[in-house]
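User: Predict structure, ligand flavin-adenine dinucleotide.
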Amino acid sequence: MAENKIYDLLILGGGPAGCAAAVYAARKQLHTAIITESFGGQSIVSEGIENWIGDQVIPGVELAKKLESHVRKYESETFDVVEHERIEKLDKQDDGNFLVTTNKNTYVSKTVLIVTGSHRRKLPVPGADEFEHKGITYCASCDGPFFTDKDVVVVGGGNAAFESASQLLAYTKSVTLLQRGESYRADAVTVDAVLADPKMTGITNTEIIEIRGNKMVNMIVYKNKGGEVVELPTDGIFVEIGAEPTTKYASDVVDLTQYGQVIVDPRTQRTSCIGVWSAGDCTDGLYHQNNIAAGDAVKALEDIYLFIKAS
Ligand SMILES: Cc1cc2nc3c(=O)[nH]c(=O)nc-3n(C[C@H](O)[C@H](O)[C@H](O)COP(=O)(O)OP(=O)(O)OC[C@H]3O[C@@H](n4cnc5c(N)ncnc54)[C@H](O)[C@@H]3O)c2cc1C
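Assistant: Predicted complex:
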């Protein structure tokens, strides 16, 4: 579909940042394509988002539908919506334009907005890849009911880990939370409330070393504070050890932090490469929220528009 076209702008990602940018780009009549694997972004798994401005409470899936339909309203000859494609590479061509390669197509554009957000960090231990989605999961609200009356483990010690544990206590026989550090990073009030449940156990100073199983996970192996190897039988493992930005595909073009975040000028959302902007969770912006992602993407669009009209 993209042969011979040179877009004004390619928007890479369809979360709150990408969708906000898309609406502004369409209304400014920039020749644009938004390319995304799916619409909605990370909070699609949330049962109720209570701080998306204008909706007192909205389930993540409903927010995703609203974002997508707002974007699709503008589909036209000059505004392409490309879903179910995975962006694999961003390159700068000798002629100054940018080449985006997906698993299905290539696209060329004068400017690019990187809004691919972030994805969940995985456990870097043997067995983690093998049992991904075979007992290892990342979403308590989505997958918790599959573990009714089972013994499960949550890995992590921040608010997300404790929130997951709290949700899982509603279904499971027991929840064991394994935290790497000496103490928990979650709010003290949350920690106390969750650990007070008789089905809940929290263990600090653990180093996960292996995941084992047959067809499905049946054991997590860790070293305890004293260095002893503990084999803990479990039916499921909920991993809550943070997120990492989805930016590797752009690392030849823009400067990234040591954590892989795109470095941006917060006044304009410009990156180190002229012609490329970024916004939302994939950037080194200090705060990551739906409204911030959308707002920063709009800021980027205002700047992109001026850049295109001036060139
Ligand atoms: C469980 C959970 C609950 C949350 N709850 C809230 C909340 O209540 N309120 C709040 O303000 N924030 C919440 N957040 C944070 C919020 O979801 C993020 O700040 C926000 O989604 C960031 O938006 P984004 O557009 O920058 O990136 P993302 O939401 O990460 O969107 C990235 C987009 O890029 C696409 N994409 C990624 N990689 C590729 C690729 N290689 N090729 C093609 N497409 C790709 C994805 O499909 C997605 O559409 C929550 C986060 C989580 C994980």
